[in-house]
Design goal:
With 103 residues, the protein is of the alpha/beta class. Helix content is 46%, strand content 27%. The protein has a four-stranded mixed β-sheet with strand order 1-2-3-4.
């Protein structure tokens, strides 16, 4: 974690899977509670793999305003997929959205 004034950065290295998804969620929620007005960036430039739970956490974080930064084609594709999921939910009438889906 790096505090850069108006921006707080969480750097994920290696794999975002299993136990590490829970750890990222804890760190994110702690950062959001202590610094609610600070811009949060998740640096995924050194991330090699993200499991399904990690993907959903990143999607939730992005939906809540967290900026995701990629550095590899794999992570770029993952972020594009997450952005496409947001676009599908935004374009879907409220009555047809999956339960719990919010804009």
């Amino acid at each position: 974690m790096a505090d850069q004034g108006a921006m707080l950065q969480l750097r994920i290295e290696g794999k975002l899977a299993g136990f590490w998804v829970t750890e990222l969620e804890k760190a994110w929620r702690e950062c959001a509670a202590h610094s609610p007005h600070q811009c949060l960036v998740v640096d995924l430039t050194a991330t090699e793999f993200v499991d399904l739970a990690g993907k959903y956490l990143l999607a939730l974080m992005r939906q809540k305003g967290v900026k995701l930064v990629a550095g590899t084609p794999y992570v770029n594709a993952l972020i594009e997929e997450i952005a496409a999921m947001d676009a599908v939910v935004e374009g879907c009438p409220a009555s047809r959205r999956p339960q719990g889906a919010k804009l």
